[in-house]
Design brief:
- With 132 residues, this protein is α+β, with helices and mostly antiparallel strands.
- The protein has one domain.
- The protein is built from five helices and six strands; from the N terminus they run αβααββαβββα.
- The chain has a five-stranded mixed beta barrel.
- Strand 5 and strand 6 form a beta hairpin.
- The radius of gyration is 20 Å and the shape is globular.
- The termini are far apart.
């Protein structure tokens, strides 16, 4: 009987900790051109500036100047939100200073709005395959 009681407590503890294990990493900062970020600068303020259009990638640059690649969002989507404050939630890689995004949020006023998610991208792919 004691063993069953202990197993029950261990099971309850594991279930309580499960949401913590599945919690995503989060990075917040300004979406900036890679070339500009690597020089410690912000890109020109006009996202239609030819300089911005020539950037080969865009990164999330935090207030302390560090920058992080977002590996699974396409260039065009990043360009749309360049120089905006963003929040990226997903799986972080310390080794590559990168995050594989599950969700991409853009600051609108004092709140963040979901603009891209892995699930939204998968849904678009499904629609494209089925022609709907």
């Amino acid at each position: 009987m004691i063993i069953k009681s202990q197993c029950r407590w261990i099971l309850l503890l594991c279930l309580a900790l499960l949401p913590l294990a599945a919690q995503a990493d989060r990075i917040e900062g300004r979406l900036n051109g890679l070339g500009c970020a690597s020089k410690g600068k912000l890109c020109p303020t006009d996202k239609n500036d030819p300089h911005v259009l020539l950037e080969r990638d865009f990164v999330v640059q935090t207030e302390d100047g560090n920058y992080f690649y977002v590996t699974n969002i396409d260039w065009k989507t990043k360009l749309k939100y360049v120089l905006r404050h963003v929040r990226v939630e997903g799986q972080f890689s310390d080794r590559f200073s990168a995050i594989a995004a599950d969700e991409f949020w853009v600051k609108q006023g004092d709140q963040y709005q979901l603009e891209w998610s892995l699930e939204m991208a998968r849904e678009k792919q499904r629609e494209a395959r089925t022609g709907q």
